[in-house]
Write a structure and sequence with these properties.
Elements lengths: L13 E3 L2 E2 H9 L1 E5 L5 E7 L6 E2 L5 E5 L3 H6 L7 H8 L7 E5 H7 L15 H14 L6 H11 L4
Antiparallel strand pairs: 1-2, 3-4, 4-5, 6-7
Helix pairs in contact: 5-6
Amino acid sequence: MTGYSREKFTHWAGQGDSCDTREAVLERAGKGVKRDAACKAVSGTWVSVYDGITVTDAGKLDIDHMVPLANAWRSGAGSWTAERRKEFANDLTRPQLLAVSAATNRSKGGQGPDEWQPPAKGYWCTYATAWTNVKSTYQLTVTNGEKTKLTEMLETCS
C-alpha cells in the first residue's frame, strides 16, 4: 500500500447538468428518483443489492466501488496515471459503481471477495461476474485467495 491514498482517485467527477458521479449512480439505481436544483437526490427508492435492504433516504446509501480503490491500488492502479485512476473511480459503464446501504459498504471497506462477500448470497453470481469484469477491463491482478473465492461464488450461477 506504499503511496496509497483515496485522494489519488479523483472521484465523484462532474457528469453534466450540475450532477456528479454519485448522483448519476443514485439516478440509475433508484426508482422514482427526484432531484433538487443542485442535482442532489431528494427522494426515491433504492434496493441495496448487497443485502436486500430498501432505502428511501439517499443519505443512507454509499456508492460502492465494486473493486475498492485500495484493492485496485494493490493490484496495479498504483502505476496508473491520475487520469486513469479518475476514470476507474467514476466508471459508469462497467459494473464498478453501486448504490448500497452504508452499513454494508462500510463492512466491506477495501476488502476483496476472499475477505468479504455480499450478505445476500443470491447476489454472489452477479458480484463475482462483475468483479471479474472490472479486474479484466482494467488489467488488475487477482490474488490466489480472490480467485478461489470468485470460483466458489461463480458456482452459484445457474
